Amino acid sequence: MELADSFSMTLSAVSQHLSVLREAGLVSLRQEGRQRFYRMNPEPLQQVADWLDFYQPFWTDKLNRLGKHLEETS
């Protein structure tokens, strides 16, 4: 309930979002009695960031060349 109050969505919608995040490994769940505690797991996001960092020089170069070409032709 506490988490749902922070967003303009229903408790059911927040629960569905948390379920998807759990399946993706982005949050973990610890249950104590009737309370559920969620904890973020940023590790999978770091893998995405590493992948993007690898390709950043390639795309930066390509976009810079495209920008130059567009400036020269306009």
Class by alpha and beta content:
alpha+beta
Low-confidence stretches: none
Order of helices and strands: HHEEH
The CATH topology of the largest domain corresponds to Arc Repressor Mutant, subunit A
What can you tell me about this protein's structure?
With 74 residues, this protein is α+β, with helices and mostly antiparallel strands. It folds into 2 domains: 1-41, Arc Repressor Mutant, subunit A (Orthogonal Bundle), CATH 1.10.10; 43-74. It is 65% helix and 16% strand. The protein contains 3 helices and 2 strands. The chain has a two-stranded antiparallel ribbon. A hairpin with a 2-residue loop joins strand 1 (27-32) and strand 2 (35-40). It is elongated and about 65 Å long. The N and C termini lie far apart (56 Å).
Question: Layout of helices and strands, plus pairs?
Answer:
Layout: H1 2-5, H2 11-23, E1 27-32, E2 35-40, H3 43-73
Antiparallel strand pairs: 1-2
Name its key features.
alpha+beta; Arc Repressor Mutant, subunit A; 3 helices; 2 strands
Task: Sum this structure up briefly.
The chain is α+β, with helices and mostly antiparallel strands and 74 residues long.
